[in-house]
Amino acid sequence: MSQTDDPMVAALLRERAGYVARGLDDRVAAVDEQLALRGYSGEAAPETQEPEGRATPQVQQSTAEGRGRGRGRRASE
User: Fold this and answer.
1) DSSP one-letter string for 51-76
2) Which residues contact 31 (CB under 8 A, 6 or more apart)?
3) Are 13 and 35 in contact (CB under 8 A)?
4) Domain chopping of the chain, boundaries
């Protein structure tokens, strides 16, 4: 679980961990600022671990080659 009982701080810590994992340093800094405004003085979530109970889904990307756009044309067209 999070290091705090405040649900907003817990959410910010999860958000921060996601930004760290993706290398979005500017967003990490913005979340750190919000944590400070909410009085969170503890160390932020570890940068090398995912938050407990959460897993980063593996997104499978497909290509659009060989596919038409939308639902296709009607038979009468």
Assistant:
1) PTT--PPPPPP---TT--STT---TT
2) 12, 15, 16, 19
3) yes
4) 7-37
